[in-house]
Write a structure and sequence with these properties.
Layout lengths: L20 E6 L10 H12 L3 E5 L1 H11 L4 H9 L3 H10 L4 H13 L5 H21 L5 E6 L4 H18 L5 E6 L4 H10 L5 E4 L6 H9 L4 E4 L13 H8 L2 H4 L4 E3 L2 E2 L11 H4 L5 E2 L2 H15 L3 E4 L7 H9 L5 E7 L5 H7 L3 E7 L6 H6 L6 H13 L3 E3 L1 E4 L6 H16 L7 E4 L7 H4 L7 E3 L22 E3 L8 H18 L9
Parallel strand pairs: 1-2, 1-3, 3-4, 4-5, 5-6, 7-10, 10-11, 11-12, 12-13, 14-15
Antiparallel strand pairs: 8-9, 16-17
Helix pairs in contact: 2-6, 4-6, 4-7, 6-7, 14-15, 18-20
Protein name: B12-binding domain-containing radical SAM protein
InterPro entries: Aldolase_TIM, BchE-like, Cobalamin-bd, Elp3/MiaA/NifB-like_rSAM, rSAM, rSAM_sf
Cofactor: [4Fe-4S] cluster
Length: 517
């Protein structure tokens, strides 16, 4: 049997109405085949507070709904993975497009990789119909908790508005809405609360230790920004048997379901200058006992035959391998995880005990001075050794090349292309993607933006009704950063040459070409 989770230490601030009816909803466009562990955790915590809480995995449901009504798989993947593609498609459900907005949409289609007009229309119609069905299921719910990532702010607001409308139609009080997730900065969290009467409470940061306060404020009709906290992180782990059991009863999901796991939260490295993970969620590194997480995996495999898992950790802590070594067991799981290139061959060998493992490595570039300007504090040789070690251990590796760093020069890109060609000839496992550096609020680059001559502008004003067009909102609504390398003469030619070389490298090794991350 799986070990019972340790009891939670509930402090006096964790208060909630003893019998409050709460719905926790994970919205599209989170990947539709993976459990949403954060929402499962929130549901469990609410129940421990005495709430009647239920979890609605809308990110899975809507996929089945949309695919069953003719939306192509390729289109759904694009809406799930392409930044702002779903927002552009769904915005007319929020506010009717003015003539100027239609012109902006046409410009976005020319300058950004979005979706075809027919697919956009189909997605919008299907999401509109699904929202009505979902809102009806929420009638009578006192509190609605929404988990919002980069792709879910607009869907969250749409659901909050639609749930209120359904309640009015039935003549009952609307659900009070608690919204948490990725905001990128506390300034954006405040703006969401100030601009959207559909939202009652915004939680900025880690939610579990302040859920009682959030629900209490919502039920009392108090509009609040609540600062998150997770001091009790290590004291409880959310078991996912119910969701796995439900998945086994659905043919479209049974053989595709991936259980999301959280060994740690926050990045233990937290140095790469382009990353804002810890700041965006107001999180600091903390970790569960690895044996507890391994026990959960074993329980799900033994009870339900579940063998697909993914770790949500930004960088899997090496300590997991100690627990694997101590257990002496080998498994036949299929596992995805992200690790740093300095993880080491011996630890990688222990990780292979899990079964068929795919490791995503934060290699970023094949130039030493390129790594240095990103503050990666790793070497090219470390990354190369890990790729080769993963291959020798039968693991699949996923890695990519990043260009467009604000401190990068044309010489960096020319030398990078030469290194790519050299490592391709040497037979190194091919990269999966090419990505361009972003300016993210809270990152090291963000703090240096003035000195680097970077500025944020919002040329597409169609999203003004969602968020104020201020620089901290640049990760959540379409924006353009001035002063980045993509504005330099020759950058696009450099990017095209690198992309073509990486694509040829992929095809040479029989990998699917799909470089844009």
């Amino acid at each position: 049997m799986t070990p019972s989770p340790a009891p939670l230490s509930l402090t006096p601030v964790l208060r909630a109405a003893p019998a409050a009816t709460v719905a926790v909803v994970s919205l599209p466009f989170f990947t539709p085949f993976a459990t949403c562990y954060p929402a499962v955790l929130i549901t469990r915590r609410l129940r421990r507070l005495g709430c009647r809480a239920r979890f609605l995995p809308a990110h899975m449901e809507f996929y089945a709904f949309a695919r069953g009504r003719g939306l192509p798989e390729s289109a759904y993947k694009l809406f799930t993975n392409r930044h702002f593609a779903s927002d552009v498609a769904l915005l007319p459900l929020w506010s009717p497009p003015a003539p100027a907005h239609r012109a902006e949409r046409a410009e976005l289609a020319r300058t950004e990789i979005l979706a075809g007009a027919e697919d956009e229309t189909r997605l919008r119609e299907l999401f509109d119909a699904y929202l009505d069905r979902l809102a009806e299921r929420l009638v009578g719910t006192e509190v609605l908790c929404l988990t919002s990532t980069h792709f879910q702010l607009l869907p969250s607001l749409l659901l909050a508005r639609r749930a209120a409308r359904a309640a009015r139609t039935r003549g009952v009080p609307r659900p009070r809405v608690v919204l948490g997730g990725y905001f990128g900065s506390s300034q954006v969290a405040r703006d969401v609360l100030a601009r959207h009467e559909e939202v009652d409470v915004v939680v900025y940061g880690e939610a579990e230790d302040v859920l009682g306060d959030a629900v209490h404020h919502a039920l009392q009709g108090r509009r609040r920004l609540v600062a998150g906290r997770a001091h009790t992180f290590k004291e409880g782990y959310a078991e996912q048997s119910a969701l796995v059991a439900a998945g086994t009863r659905r043919p479209w999901l049974r053989d595709r379901l991936v259980v999301s796991l959280e060994l740690s939260r926050g990045c233990y490295w937290d140095r790469c200058d382009f990353c804002n993970f810890n700041d965006a969620y107001d999180a600091r590194f903390k970790m569960h006992d690895p044996a507890r997480v391994l026990a959960e995996m074993a329980h799900l495999a033994r009870t339900y035959g579940q063998r697909r898992f993914q770790f949500l950790d930004t960088a899997l802590p090496p300590r997991l391998t100690q627990a694997l070594d101590a257990s002496g067991e080998r498994h036949d799981y299929r596992v995805f995880c992200e690790i740093r290139p300095d993880f080491g061959r011996e630890r990688l060998r222990q990780l292979a005990r899990l079964g068929r493992v795919t490791v995503q490595l934060g290699i970023e570039t094949l130039l030493e001075d390129h790594l240095a300007l990103m503050d990666k504090r790793q070497s090219v040789e470390e990354g190369v050794r890990m790729l080769r070690a993963a291959r020798s251990l039968g693991m699949r590796s996923v890695w990519g090349v990043m260009i467009g760093h604000p401190k990068e020069t044309p010489d960096h890109r020319r030398r990078l292309l030469a290194e790519i060609r050299a490592h391709r000839r040497a037979g190194l496992p091919a990269p999966k993607y090419l990505t361009e550096c972003e300016l993210r609020p809270g990152s090291g680059l963000w703090d240096e933006r003035g000195a680097l001559g970077l500025s944020v502008e919002f040329p597409w004003r169609m999203f003004d009704s969602l968020l104020s067009p201020r620089e901290h909102a640049c990760s959540l609504i379409p924006s353009r950063v001035r002063g980045m390398p993509f504005e330099e003469p020759g950058y696009r030619a450099d990017r095209r040459a690198i992309s073509e070389e990486l694509t040829a490298w992929q095809r040479e090794q029989g990998r699917e070409a799909g470089l844009d991350a």
